[in-house]
């Protein structure tokens, strides 16, 4: 029988000292706080799979201001990002922390979520200036490599979203297969739950970059990752992915949370599947670590 390593960690990554340090740093910032949610994710692209990713979120309400102000420095956030993060942090309703192995380098991410999911940010002026969420991303090994991503919410009904994803108007041909996976997920969700109204749709841009993508919320869809197997198999053939089946084998029974599709800053098409995780996933990675 072929040995399958525990999801979501590939052992060589989980044993890397920089990955373990980054994971410990992220976990320390949420220590003692009520974590609102955990996610693990896997990105699929023609260049291969990137599975070693974890995210957690918490509300800043009730957290000591001094602790929140110290967050950028505690995470090792580069100065320019830290200044921007601190300026917007007071308006955030949730803070999300994440890390992943980006090819060969560790990337750490801190997101500020503004306003409620279906509501607007506090004032009209703020609503005009702020996206639904902003992500600040950097490589500890190379502080000059930073990214700032904006996630803007677009109101759309589930069936309208299905049509939008299926048509993929204006999407480069190389990205159409990625949109096809998202369209399949929405179609499956509607087939199982015809009155599924809880979909959420975000458009994503990156400052100073050609990245263009979108995110679909699927938490309330009832779908598990394994339900996407036909779409993943089709993507595997199109992108010539040799390891896509591992995504289903490892994540299969986890509830699907979000899906992101589009092109990254290098213009590579991608599909990222986000699913539920737990604190046990983080502990598992630390148990493998040798830092």
Principal-axis shape: globular
If you average the pLDDT, what whole number results? 88
Helix/strand-derived category reads alpha+beta
Stretches with pLDDT under 50, minimum 5 residues: 1-5, 118-128
Q: Hey, roughly how much beta strand do the residues contain?
A: 25-35%
Features:
291 residues, alpha+beta, ten-stranded antiparallel β-barrel, 11 strands, 31% strand, disordered N terminus
Could you please describe the fold and organization of this structure?
This protein is an alpha+beta fold and 291 residues long. 34% of the residues lie in helices and 31% in strands. The protein contains 11 helices and 11 strands. Strands 1-3-4-5-6-7-8-9-10-11 form a 10-stranded antiparallel β-barrel, surrounded by 5 helices. The longest helix is centred in the middle third of the chain and has 17 residues. The two termini are 31 Å apart. The N terminus is likely disordered.
Per-chain topology:
Layout (H helix, E strand, L loop, with lengths): L10 H4 L2 H13 L5 E11 L2 E3 L2 E6 L6 H5 L1 H5 L3 H11 L2 E11 L2 E10 L9 H6 L3 E7 L2 E12 L4 H10 L8 H17 L7 E7 L5 E6 L11 H11 L4 H8 L4 E8 L5 E8 L2 H10 L3
Antiparallel strand pairs: 1-2, 1-3, 1-11, 3-4, 4-5, 5-6, 6-7, 7-8, 8-9, 9-10, 10-11
Write a concise synopsis of the structure shown:
The chain is an alpha+beta fold and 291 residues long.
